[in-house]
Design a protein that fits this description.
The complex is a heterodimer of chains A (163) and B (250).
Chain A (H helix, E strand, L loop, with lengths): L1 H23 L2 H17 L10 H23 L4 H5 L15 H11 L3 H12 L4 H8 L3 H21 L1
Chain B lengths: L7 H8 L5 H13 L1 H23 L6 H16 L22 H9 L2 E4 L4 E2 L6 H9 L3 H9 L5 E4 L2 E10 L5 E8 L3 E10 L1 E11 L12 H9 L8 H9 L4
Antiparallel strand pairs in B: 1-2, 1-7, 3-4, 4-5, 5-6, 6-7
Helix pairs in contact in B: 1-3, 2-3, 4-5
The chains are: A mainly alpha (163), B alpha+beta (250).
Chain lengths: 163, 250
């Protein structure tokens, strides 16, 4: 179903990019990651079963691309990407500045979480994936998803209450 | 359920609607009996709402370059028989087995707008409303009418710009496609429209008008690449073009 997958991909782009930003925290890198994931998805379009959740399938591909990237960095040594990676999402020009104080507080709190907590938080709370789907995207047991998610949300409530 | 340990994970799963019935009922009961438990569950609901709002508010627009690059990938995929078009000679990127995408580079360099009406959208640069307006005109019935008759190399003045048909091709699926240029005072759009019963624009690029009035035909690599990916034959000229154009216009 080639036409279907193209439309699904386009519709999913904003959320794919948001996930990529959560993973790599750099806009140029995130865009390259999204593009790489789309290319990989189209090349393996046959392995997507229509009727199953397309977003979960794409998130898994995107995350695998990211892991491949990290592996390569490790084996090739740190390259210029490291400096790119340290750019934070909140840098100027990185999208609309939140004017609601509480939301920017929450955003800051989310940014300060470890990556493994940020990604479960995003997938479950913003992208509405179930625990099971999230576990499949991340390749970890459901119990791990739940403990990371609970920790992230507890921490979030502590930080936003304290601020 | 004689003994239920009210761990954070369990309460969170309840808040997220992830618990099966016997356990869920037990949590509901515990919440009713103990406000502290209810508060913990509500905190988890609240953290979900906050996260969703914060992340959705921060959801940035997809940059047009990225959108254009992915659109090009999709078009190449859909144009190929089984979606097996692969880049062959591009250098490897930092993303594992993924190759660096030259289309993105070209898109950035040319500051272009491209879109695929087949997918029902155009992509525009945010800072170029004129280009978007010009792209919007590509669907104009006036253009489609001219495409039925105007020979390649000819120009016609339309209310919103000057239309020039560049060339005519037969593509792999048998459709007749025409490359054309629409030029307004400030912007130029190059597009490929194909006829399946009626015309539709499948591919379009737009950018600022060139400084010189004359632009050689077929100057855009992207249009050529697109036509190639569609399996276009050599251009139809003269009699062959006239014959092909008259196929559906009786």
């Amino acid at each position: 179903m080639p036409a279907a997958i193209g439309q699904e991909l386009v519709a999913l782009l904003p959320r794919l990019r948001r996930f990529a930003l959560v993973l790599c925290r750099s806009q140029p890198l995130a865009d390259d990651l999204v593009q790489g994931a789309c290319e990989r998805a189209l090349a393996n379009a046959g392995s997507w079963t229509p009727g199953t959740k397309f977003d979960a399938w794409m998130f898994r591909i995107l995350r695998n691309c990211w892991i491949d990237h990290l592996r390569r960095l490790r084996t090739e040594g740190m390259t210029e990407d490291v400096s790119v990676q340290t750019q934070l999402i909140g840098d100027p020009g990185e999208g609309p500045i939140l004017n609601k104080l509480v939301l920017s507080e929450v955003q800051r709190a989310i940014d300060s979480l470890p990556q493994e907590q940020r990604e479960v938080l995003l997938l479950v709370c913003a992208d509405d994936l179930s625990y099971r789907e999230t576990a499949e995207v991340l390749g970890v047991p459901i119990g791990t998803v739940m403990s990371r998610l609970a920790r992230a949300r507890r921490r979030l409530m502590e930080m936003t209450a304290a601020a | 359920m004689s003994q239920l340990h009210l761990s954070d994970e369990i309460l969170m799963a309840f808040a997220d609607g992830e618990l099966e019935e016997p356990t869920a009922a037990a949590i509901a009961k515990a919440m009713a009996e103990d406000p502290a438990v209810a508060k913990r569950v509500m905190d988890f609901q609240q953290s979900r709402r906050l996260t969703r709002s914060a992340l959705s508010a921060a959801l940035p627009d997809v940059p047009p370059e990225l959108q254009a690059a992915v659109s090009a990938q999709i078009m190449a995929y859909e144009a190929s028989d089984e979606g097996k078009v692969r880049p062959t000679d591009t250098p490897s990127s930092s993303f594992g087995g993924i190759r660096r995408r030259p289309i993105l580079k070209m898109a950035l360099a040319a500051s272009i707008v491209m879109g695929a009406l087949g997918l029902g959208y155009f992509v525009g640069r945010h800072d170029s409303p004129e280009a978007n307006r010009l792209l919007a005109q590509l669907n104009n019935p006036d253009i489609y009418r001219e495409l039925n008759t105007l020979a390649s190399g000819q120009d016609v003045e339309l209310p919103f710009g000057r239309l020039r048909v560049i060339s005519t091709y037969r593509v792999a699926n048998g459709s007749l496609c025409r490359e054309f240029r629409l030029q307004s005072r400030t912007e130029t759009a190059e597009a490929v429209a194909c006829r399946n019963g009626e015309w539709s624009v499948n591919f379009a690029l737009a950018g600022p008008a060139k400084a010189s009035a004359y632009v050689p035909s077929g100057e855009s690599d992207l249009v050529a690449t697109y036509l190639q990916s569609m399996g276009a034959s050599g251009p139809l000229v003269d009699e062959a073009e006239v014959r092909a154009l008259s196929e559906f216009t009786r």
